[in-house]
Write a structure and sequence with these properties.
Helix content: 25-40%
CATH class of the largest domain: Alpha Beta
Radius of gyration: 17 Å
Largest sheet: 5 strands, parallel
Number of strands: 8
CATH superfamily of the largest domain: 5'-nuclease
Structural class: alpha/beta
CATH architecture of the largest domain: 3-Layer(aba) Sandwich
Shape: elongated
Strand order of the largest sheet: 3-2-1-4-5
């Protein structure tokens, strides 16, 4: 059974110059992406695509937002994602749940990493994209204490230094066969 392919755009797709008018597939984004677009030409492209119906802007259901937050905390990418990023992933997951093949167009490595974790397809524009799925570990660069990826605070509870992250596990992302 063939599923309908849809494109979900994050801010970096618009910034990299993605043209929603250039493809036949349905194109989606979220309202928070518009808030991240500062450049007048980029914002103009977003608003023009929205006003003529080429771009559909949808707020994802909370259950999908929660699933993305949970997945991003497991991988350690939660701190690197904006609310717009989380909503983009949640919308793609929601559309996939509706039986569509959702491709997230993004150059953001954290979005790509979480998309991979959630079984979502992604396509980079101005970068090569990630080759490995990474699970992150938080650590204190001063006292070397380690913290789980979903640790809530930004500072070390021992010495107060701002935490950093490093890869804990690295797995090659498998290529799927294209039909």
């Amino acid at each position: 059974m063939l599923t309908k392919k849809v494109i979900v755009l994050d801010s970096s797709a618009f910034i990299a110059g993605f043209d929603p008018f250039s493809i036949k597939d349905e194109v989606y984004s979220v309202p928070l992406v518009k808030m991240e677009l500062k450049d007048s030409m980029v914002l103009f492209r977003f608003e023009t695509a929205l006003s003529n119906g080429t771009l559909k802007v949808v707020i994802p259901l909370e259950e999908f937002v929660e699933r993305v937050v949970e997945a991003s905390k497991k991988t350690g990418d939660y701190r690197s994602l904006s609310n717009a990023d989380i909503q983009v992933l949640a919308l793609a997951l929601q559309l996939k749940n509706e039986g569509k093949t959702a491709v997230v167009v993004t150059d953001d490595y954290s979005i790509q990493n979480v998309a991979s974790q959630l079984g979502l397809e992604f396509a980079p524009l101005a970068t090569f994209g990630i080759k490995f799925h990474l699970d992150w570990l938080l650590y204190c660069p001063a006292c070397k204490r380690k913290y789980p990826a979903d640790y809530k605070r930004r500072e070390c509870e021992t010495c107060g230094t701002v935490l950093k992250r490093k890869p804990l596990k690295k797995r090659i992302i498998g290529k799927k066969k294209q039909n």
